[in-house]
Structure prediction request, 658 residues.
Amino acid sequence: MADTSAGERASRRREAVRGFSLVSPPLLYALLLLAAPLSAVVVISFWTQDYLTLTPGFTLDNYEQALTRPVFQTLLSRSLGVALLVTAVTVVLAFPVAYYVSFHVRPERKALWIFLITIPFWTSYLLRVFLWRVILGYNGVLNTGLLGIGVIDEPLTFLLYNVNAVIITLAHAWAPFAILPIFVALEKIDRSLLEASHDLGESRVRTFLRVTLPLAMPGVVAAVLIVFIPTIGDYVTPSLVGGSSGQLIANMIQVQFLRLNNAPLGAALAVTTMLIVGAMSVLFLLFTRRYLRGQQ
Amino acid sequence: MSDTIISLRSISKRYGAVLALDDVSAEIVRGEFFSLLGPSGCGKTTLLRAIAGFEEPDAGVLQIDGQNMAEVPANRRPTNMVFQSYAIFPHLSVGENVAFGLRRRGLSRAETARKVGAALEMVGLAGLEARASHALSGGQRQRGALARALILEPKVLLLDEPLSALDKKMRNQMQEELRRLQRHGGITFILRTHDQEEALIMSDRIAVMFDGRIAQIATPQTLYRRPSTRRVADFIGSMNFVPARVVSEQGAAYELEVTGFGRAPISHEQAPEGVSGRNGVVGIRPETLTILFGAEAAGPHVVTGVVDDLVYYGDMTYYDVRLPGHEEALRISMRNTAGRRVLERGAEARVAWSPETFVYFP
Prediction:
C-alpha cells in the first residue's frame, strides 16, 4: 500500500511538473503583457507627477478628482451611454443576421456566409473609420447622394464629428463580433426542439420567444460583453469621427498620459473605468444567469 | 374498421430524385396501437412527420378525425409527438417542460400544477417537477417527453423511435408501460420503429414499408404467419426459403413439390401472391420444424438431414440442418425442454414438418 501511494505521489508530481512546463509560455506571456502593465497602472494611480517626474507615494487625490470633477463625470457617463447604445444597436442588428445564416442558409453555404461577414477585418480598423468619414462627411457620399436625388437642400451636419458618428462607426466595426457568438449559439439549438414546440401547439413567433431566444441567450450575453467592454475603452473612433462633442473617457485618459503629463490621474481614470465596466459586466452576468446554466 | 381516426389516401412525397412516399394509403382505427415498420429509408419517418404536420405531402389526402389536414400546421393538429431525441427543452425544468403545451389552455396556476403532477405520476416521474431537465437520465427524459405529449390529451400520439436510445432492459420496461398507457388512455398510438420485435410486441396492427410503399398492413400474428410478400417474410423474424414447384392446382388448394421435403398440400391463403409461373420458394419459420428425438412419434411428414452447425442459447438451440438436395442449411429452432438433448455437429436429424405453416411465394 505504502509503495503504491508513494508511486502515485511521484507520478502526480511528475504530472504537475509537466503541467507547469506546458502552461508556462502562455503564463509568462500573460504575466508580461497583462498582469505587469495592469499592476503598473494601478500602482501609478496612487502616485503623483510633477511635469515629467513621477513621484512614488500613496495618495487618493487622483481618485477623488476622477470621481468628482464634472468633466470626468460627463465623459464617463457619456462613454457608458455610448457603449450601451453601441452594444444595443450592434446586438439587435446582429441577431437577425445570425438567425438568417443559421436557419435559412443551406448548410453547405454557411461557411461562405461567415467568411463574408468577416471580410471587413481584411482592412485595418483605421481605414474603416476613415471610410466612415468619407461616407458621413459634409461633402461625403451620403450627403452628396441625398442632395443629388433632392431629398435634402443642404448637407446634413449631424452625421459626422459627434456622438452619432461614433455610434455608427463602432456598431459597424463590432458587428461580426456580435454575429459570431449568436450564430454559434443558434447553431447549437437542436432543431427538434423547435419542432417539439410547434408540435405542442405554439406558433412560429411563440416558439421563437419561448425556445429559440432563451436558448440563444448564451450567445447574446457573449455578444453584449464582447462589444460593451472594448467599446467603452475605445479612443481611436471618437478621436477620428467624434469631434469635440463625441469625445469619450478613453480620449481623456490618453490626454492625461501623453499631453497633460498627469499619468497618475490618467491611471486613476483608467482604473475607475475598469472597475465600473467590471461591475456592470458582473451585474449583467448575474442578471442573465438563469439563461446560462443548465445547458450543455 | 368503421371508426377511422386517420385516413391516408394516395399520399406521395418526393425529395429531389427520391420518392419518399409512393402512393401510400391506409386507415388507422381510433384507439389502436399502430406501427410503421421498415428498414431505414423506407419512408416511415416521412409518413410520421407528414401526419404530425412537419412535412407537406406533394399529393394525396390526409384526414385526421374526418378533417382534411392539408392547410393545418403542426401546432393546430390534434396530434403530439414523442421525438427520437426526446427534444426536452434544456432551459426549462421538468415541470415546465411538461406544462409547455398547456399555456394556450389558459388554466390557473393551481390547475396546471395539478395536471403536471398527474402526468408525471402517470409516467413514473412523480415529484420531479423542479428537477433540471439536463439532470435526467435517458429513460427519464423519455418519460418526460411522453408526459409532455400526453398531458395535452391528443387524439393521436406519434412515437418516433422513442425506445431506440435506451438499453435493452429499460426498453422492455418502457414497451410494457407504453402499452399500458395506450390501453388505459384509449389514445391512438402510432409508433415508428425499425425493430420488428418491438413492433410485434406492441402493436395491434403493423404497416410494413419498403421503398416508400406499404407492403402489408396486418396484425402481428397475420404478419408473422402469412407475410404477403417474400420481402416482408424476410424482414419479419427469420425464415427459411426453399425452392418449390407447383405441381397441381385444385380450386382453393395447391400441391407443391418442395425440394428436400417432397409433396406438400397448401391452401389458397398460403400463396398470398398467387402461383404465377410454376417455380417459386416456400417460406418456413424455424420454429415450425421439429427435430425428433428417439422415441418421439413421427407424423406423416418427416425428412432426415445432417446437423451442419448449432448455436446453444440455454433455453433454445438453433440448428442448421442440411436436407438432401439443399444447397443451404435449414435453420431450425428447438426449445430445450426437459428430456430433450442437444444434438452434435454431424449427427443425423429427423425433421418433422407441417405443410400448413408453409407460405409460397412465386
In short: Residues 1-44 of chain A form one domain. The radius of gyration of chain A is 25 Å. The longest helix of chain A spans residues 2-44.
